Every structure is written in structure tokens, then in C-alpha cells.
Amino acid sequence: MTFDILKKRFGVGRRVDDFLDKVSESGMLFQLGVEAYLKANQESFAKKIEDISTVEHVGDALRRDLEELLYTQTLIPDSRGDVLELLESMDGLLDRFKGSLWRFDIEQPDIYPELHDDILELASCAVECVESMVRSARAFFKDLTAVADHLHKVSYWESQSDKVSTRLQKLVFNKDDLPLSYRMQLRDFIRHMDKISDRAEDVADKLRIYVIKRSL
């Protein structure tokens, strides 16, 4: 089952795909940015900050364009509220990636080498979680029966993110030779990255309800 409007008005379908592409792209830039930061590659990190800010700007413009189309042209009136909420929630995930990368830039945490692999794994879990959410959203617009195939992966990656986050926090607080303020800063960074996966699962929970409503 698909939205009839996406069959009849290819422009709308293309905009939805373009918007979801930006959410996906923000995740890739986030992961590359974290890698560059840990390698102390300041030039590459600064470029990823610039790129993700541009992607966020384009994504916002696409979302606003879609919202205007849904309102002014009275498209899919029965599902319009759900679609608008889904678009806004997906845009929120893009913002999370950008905000987390900017936080590295602003606070410049000194992450000791023993944590690097786990930090990269945590970033990867967040990206995989959101990417699964992007695939779920695409299926919602194109093939409702395929949504469940992707939603369970959102839950899987959120669970993996929690495990890595917990392991990292234990490592940080087991380092008695580190100042408490430093350990708390690292803890906050770890939690902030983990929140990306949490928010993706929140969106997945909403999407499950939208799918049920569409199936009635």
C-alpha cells in the first residue's frame, strides 16, 4: 500500500526522498566528524561541521516545503497529521547529529585513547539506528508492508547503543586518577551520543502507531 498522492505527484515523493537523504547524510557526516576529532584532524573535523550545518539547512527547507504542500494543496488529509509529525521527528534526528558534533567543537573534550574504539562504536550504533529509522520512514511512504522489516533494527541498534554507553561510562568512572569534573564531562558526552539512538526509537514507536492507523 502506498500513498496515492505519491503515485500521482512525483514531485512530492521526490521531496520526501530528498529530505530523508539529508537525514541519512547527516549521520554519515556525524560519524566521519567523530573519527576526525579523535584523530585530531582539525581541518577534516571543521569541514564536517560545515557540511553537516549545510545539510541541516537544506533539510529544514525541504521539510518546510513539504509541510506547505501538505497544507495548501490538501494532500492526504486523513494522514496529514501523522506525516507532518513524522517529518518533524525525522528532522529532529538530523538536528541531534548536528548538535552532537557541534558540542565536540565547542567543548573540545580530551578523550583518552583507551576510549576511542568504544566512542567510535557508539557513534556507529547511533548512525545505524537512525539509518534503520530512515528506511522505515521510506517504507511508510512506499510500501507499508515493509515497515516492520526495518523497525526491529531500530530497536536492535538502540539496545546496542545502550550497552556501549554503559560500558563507556563504567570505564570512565573506574579511572580514579581522573578529576571528577573530567569524568562527568565525558559521561555527558557519552549520554548525549546515546540519546540519538533513544530519539530514533521514540520515532519508531510513533511510526508503529501510524502504521496501525493506516492498516485499519
Taken from the alpha-carbon principal axes, the silhouette is globular
Briefly note the CATH topology name: Methane Monooxygenase Hydroxylase, Chain G, domain 1
CATH class type: Mainly Alpha
Radius of gyration equals 19 Å
Give the percentage of residues in beta strands. under 5%
Q: What is the count of structural domains?
A: 1
Assembly status: single chain
CATH architecture assignment name: Up-down Bundle
Report the uncertain regions: none
The count of strands amounts to: 0
The fourth-level CATH homologous superfamily is: Phosphate transport system protein phou homolog 2, domain 2
Helix content: over 70%
Report how far apart the termini are: 12 Å
Major sheet: none
User: Could you tell me the mean pLDDT?
Assistant: 90
Number of helices: 7
The succession of helices and strands, N to C, reads HHHHHHH
**Class by alpha and beta content:** mainly alpha
